[in-house]
Amino acid sequence: MEPVGITLVKKELTVDHLVLILDLVGTFVFALSGAMAAVRRRLDLFGVLVLSFAAATFGGITRDLLIGAVPPAAINDWRYLAVSLLAGIITFFRHPTVNRLATRVLIFDAAGLGLFAVAGTHKALSYGLNPVMAALFGMVTGIGGGVARDVLLTEIPVVLRAELYALAALAGATVVVCGAALQFPSALVSVVGAAFCFGLRYMAIRNSWKLPVAGGHEEPTEETQGTRDVKK
Amino acid sequence: MEPVGITLVKKELTVDHLVLILDLVGTFVFALSGAMAAVRRRLDLFGVLVLSFAAATFGGITRDLLIGAVPPAAINDWRYLAVSLLAGIITFFRHPTVNRLATRVLIFDAAGLGLFAVAGTHKALSYGLNPVMAALFGMVTGIGGGVARDVLLTEIPVVLRAELYALAALAGATVVVCGAALQFPSALVSVVGAAFCFGLRYMAIRNSWKLPVAGGHEEPTEETQGTRDVKK
Amino acid sequence: MEPVGITLVKKELTVDHLVLILDLVGTFVFALSGAMAAVRRRLDLFGVLVLSFAAATFGGITRDLLIGAVPPAAINDWRYLAVSLLAGIITFFRHPTVNRLATRVLIFDAAGLGLFAVAGTHKALSYGLNPVMAALFGMVTGIGGGVARDVLLTEIPVVLRAELYALAALAGATVVVCGAALQFPSALVSVVGAAFCFGLRYMAIRNSWKLPVAGGHEEPTEETQGTRDVKK
């Protein structure tokens, strides 16, 4: 399949380069989050590395499988693996430090979410998906890794409950889709989309914004604990 | 790949149309079941919509990935998404009503199971799979969404324990496979297959039919609770 | 895609035959482990068969999806299904016997791990993946079934914590990759790789070798129970 819209791109930065850079930075950040969750549940070194890789790449692998980009980039390109393992090893040996930076990791995680959402949307568009589905794929790329991390640790995925998590990813992806439809430059659209997603998620964390729950009466149950763990 | 057996079909209803209609009705029903489970576990609005979509489409997506129909219909065709979201929104805002209708939802769920099993088998046959595997794919299409729903909510999938659930799907799929082998008209075979699956599941619910458990002595444990929750 | 390296193979045993034989024996052993776990959690006959099939084939199916070998061998070839069901039925009706042989099943499981790791690596190499990724795919083939089994039963996958489980698979896969690079005969390399993986895992079980856990102080928690269950 021939990527569409390649002509919109400035010479100095192709969509492919852009996707790669966004992806690798996002990979590192999400691998950190997977490794920290694994260390907390006392998995051994290997388990920590697997969780790093799963949290960092599951969203992208799902996207690539579904749009027919086989073998997925995260498997075909050693850099994703290397970046994931690096993040896992750092966390394993320096986890008190990483833990102390947990709030900052949450900020990084918001940044990673924006990067993945934007990169995923670009890739889906370049495979010819329609705008609505491309935005959804951006969201899946952003939240897939967190879902895999939590399912492997037998927790209800935080992204299904945390403060505007998936909605922020969807918002960033929507910016990219609209920008592409209006033929704005990809690099500009990417920056705006990622920043919008990041900003929304950041505000949601600071102000504990939440989506409504059906019924409304809020008794804290054991099941809402996952969300609280993340905020700590 | 060229669908086989297309010549068996009456002019007024192609296999493609049939699969689409069966699929969309089944999608709505399964999305309801996913949304209700999510509301019970107190997920927020977004979580409810994700569970709707996952429960409604995971079986079909798995089938399409495995038979090489990429991108899967549930992703390429906006109607699956629209129907899933509609069911999710209705459940979110009207869940006491939906809850009161829970028994009727179980009946709908049995209907959806029949529809998905039949649609999945047709699609697998049209991609040239052998009859045994086509029947299995019909079953996977029927039960996949329920498995995804339960795994995301960290419960042992009900379909692995409920009353003849997967077996009913397999029975409906087998009818389709046999009918296709005997070159009976697709529409007739579909109706009979879906009705057979539905009837079997309906009788199993009413009479609490169960498959045997190894060993046999039946002490009710915390682990059998999932099944009971569904029946309520 | 044209398998590469087919010329390295002796006439009497092609890589395809080798992969098939290794795969089927491994399938039987892993199906046993899935069925036993299902019987312990008191799933019904059907649930036991599903767990047999999932534990036996999920690793290979994941590998085939990711390298683009669609439809996956485990689905296209009835022998995988037949072998899985056979193991499931034997376990269901003879589970006290199988249970008494649990230690021996653990030995078989180690053998299956070696067989799958080697078979998976061969297949990935024959699809042209680079050596590092081929070794990783060998590991995924080996551990994937166990992950699926545990996630379906809502347990943290044992392979993320058990004694050198995944590392043994990776070691066996690495032998195959190195052997292929040095153009040694496939059959020889397979035997050495599988034996190395088996030996490593066997020693790890006997001596309770473990990888380090971050932090180090080892208090036994409810979460480490999965590992102990397996050793019993």
TrEMBL record, chains A, B, C:
<protein>
    <submittedName>
        <fullName>Trimeric intracellular cation channel family protein</fullName>
    </submittedName>
</protein>
<feature type="transmembrane region" description="Helical">
    <location>
        <begin position="18"/>
        <end position="39"/>
    </location>
</feature>
<feature type="transmembrane region" description="Helical">
    <location>
        <begin position="132"/>
        <end position="152"/>
    </location>
</feature>
<keyword id="KW-0812">Transmembrane</keyword>
<feature type="domain" description="Glycine transporter">
    <location>
        <begin position="107"/>
        <end position="178"/>
    </location>
</feature>
<feature type="transmembrane region" description="Helical">
    <location>
        <begin position="46"/>
        <end position="66"/>
    </location>
</feature>
<keyword id="KW-1133">Transmembrane helix</keyword>
<keyword id="KW-0472">Membrane</keyword>
<keyword id="KW-1003">Cell membrane</keyword>
<feature type="domain" description="Glycine transporter">
    <location>
        <begin position="21"/>
        <end position="95"/>
    </location>
</feature>
<comment type="similarity">
    <text>Belongs to the UPF0126 family.</text>
</comment>
<dbReference type="Pfam" id="PF03458">
    <property type="entry name" value="Gly_transporter"/>
</dbReference>
<dbReference type="InterPro" id="IPR005115">
    <property type="entry name" value="Gly_transporter"/>
</dbReference>
<feature type="transmembrane region" description="Helical">
    <location>
        <begin position="101"/>
        <end position="120"/>
    </location>
</feature>
<feature type="transmembrane region" description="Helical">
    <location>
        <begin position="164"/>
        <end position="182"/>
    </location>
</feature>
